[in-house]
């Protein structure tokens, strides 16, 4: 299994990956915000164009994404340069 000291040194990383203490750990929340913002900024438009994802499904995905983010992460997302379609779908996700 390898050197136990090396495994211990990776425990904080594993904890971040598992999203442990998401509600109370700032570093974990920041990592989750980063993951969500990367999705919105760099992957959303291609993801949204997939043939098996209709508008309702995309709105639900955005609701879930929004729910994972902290308030500062949400504010960053609202000020990002996103496509008009992304902005429209985010608006729909936030309406309900």
UniProtKB/TrEMBL annotation:
Recorded superkingdom: Eukaryota
Pfam families: DUF4202 (PF13875)
Protein name per the record: Uncharacterized protein
